[in-house]
Structures are given as C-alpha cells and as structure tokens.
Design goal:
Length: 95
C-alpha cells in the first residue's frame, strides 16, 4: 500500500467516525483531520516533484559538463624521492 492509498484509508476511517449522533465539533474535527491528510499528500507530492527536478538538473550537468575520464589522483603521480634521486635531478637540471 503506497502513501496515497494509506492516506485515503485514514480519511475513510475519519469519515466513518461521523455518525448521525456525532456532534458538530466531532464532525468538524474529523473533517479537519481529513483536510490535514490531503495537505500532507500534497506536500509530499511537491517534495517528490522538486527532488525529480533536482535529479534531472544534476544528471544534465554531469552529462553536459563531464567527460568519460575519471579525475586523476594527484597523490598517485608524485612519489617521495631519495636524497640520491634529488641530487641527480638537480645535477640534470643544472646542465
């Protein structure tokens, strides 16, 4: 059962509480609860729609601005040098 079905079920239960013997206050309270459920369903739908819009925007940004190559790891390119390697590099650059 999804959230809309569950909300409709709860609304039906609230409406079922209204009997010919119900006071106007009880009727008003049951109707207010049903209205609140409608508002919650509406709010949920708007949040889902907004999330879908953001998801579409992110997908569009990734596909239009990215490429297939993953970013390089800068730590993988550099490695520590020994003293001998550093001296050899300085001598090589000096020539």
């Amino acid at each position: 059962m999804n959230y809309k079905e569950k909300a409709e079920s709860l609304k039906a239960k609230f409406k079922a509480k209204i009997t010919p013997e119900s006071t106007p206050e009880q009727i008003e309270e049951a109707n207010a609860m049903a209205t609140e459920l409608d508002e919650l369903v509406s709010l949920h739908d708007s949040v889902v729609a907004e999330n879908a819009k953001f998801k579409d925007t992110i997908v569009r940004m990734v596909t239009s601005q990215g490429d297939a190559t993953p970013p390089s790891d800068p730590s993988a390119e550099s490695k520590p040098m020994s003293i001998e390697e550093a001296i050899a590099k300085v001598r090589q650059e000096g020539k």
